[in-house]
Amino acid sequence: MTPPSTEDPDRPNLMAERPSLLIAGATGLVGRHVVTSAVAAPRFGRIVTIGRRRLSEDVLPNDVVESVEQHVVDYDALDASTGWADVDVVICALGTTMKRAGGKARFRMVDYDYPLALARHVREKGACHFILVSSMGADPESRIFYSRVKGEVEQDLRKAGFDRLTLARPTLLLGDRDESRFGEDLARRLRFVMRGKYRPIAAADVADALLESVTWQKEPVRILEADELRSTAQRFRDS
Going by C-beta distance under 8 Å and a sequence separation of 6 or more, which residues neighbour residue 234? Predict the structure, then answer.
């Protein structure tokens, strides 16, 4: 891959230098792919992760782990004094399920409170672009609790003051997880008959689309639905 050319009006280089990148949720399905693709791409500079635990060779290859600056944090009491928030761009892939969270309150904390707390810290340090892994159907007025929380965090991130905000809304994610999820197992079996924006999407496609949006996006706010995530991911791989 080569860095984006400032001479191409359709692909502006929005950073004066290779942007520094923070990944939250790096041990998750999408986050792992973001880290490996970012390390392999010469267009990025410093790559930072935050999480409750460090990445290991069980999660990522050892040579990839060694290329990443890792910070162990407590999301319930984020402290930016160690320097992790001093970055240009943030990719937030934090998220859980109702089953894993154990209830609505904990789910909302992980999928709403944590991303907004992260956004406040990095914005105070000068980050200019926040990229969120949201979900298809995100809507602050939804009667479905999951979709409503996703819509509310999108809504409030729009007020956070970033120069650019990317909201990725994937469908069901395909990939190797630590835990099995019935809906995703079913979607994997039915993916060849599902069409359009409802078709499941590979986590690797979502990750590459997020990375492409770092230097591709011109709009202050951009929403990437599943089909556009696929095409944007391909653009990243072709560059």
Answer: none
146 is catalytic: yes
Active-site position among 112, 125, 146, 197: 146
Distance CA 210, CA 132 (A): 9
Nearest to 114 by CA among 71, 175, 204, 50: 50
Residue with tokens 């979607």: 187
Residue 167's H or E segment, with its range, is strand 164-169
- Domain coverage including residue 111: 21-238
Catalytic residue among 125, 150, 159, 197: 150
How far is the CA of 177 from the CAs of 17, 32, 173, in angstroms? 35, 10, 10
- Structure confidence by residue, pLDDT tens digits, 155-209: 999 999 999 999 999 998 997 655 544 444 444 444 444 455 678 899 999 999 9
Tens-place pLDDT, residues 36-94: 999 999 899 999 999 998 887 777 778 788 889 999 999 999 999 999 999 999 999 99
Q: What's the domain count of the chain?
A: 1
Q: Is residue 2 part of a domain?
A: no
- How many Å apart are CA 118 and CA 23, to the nearest integer? 11
- How far is residue 16's CA from residue 98's CA, in Å, rounded to a whole number? 41
User: Among this protein's residues, is 99 annotated catalytic?
Assistant: no
Please tell me the predicted confidence (pLDDT) of residue 157.
Answer: 98
pLDDT in the model for residue 189: 47
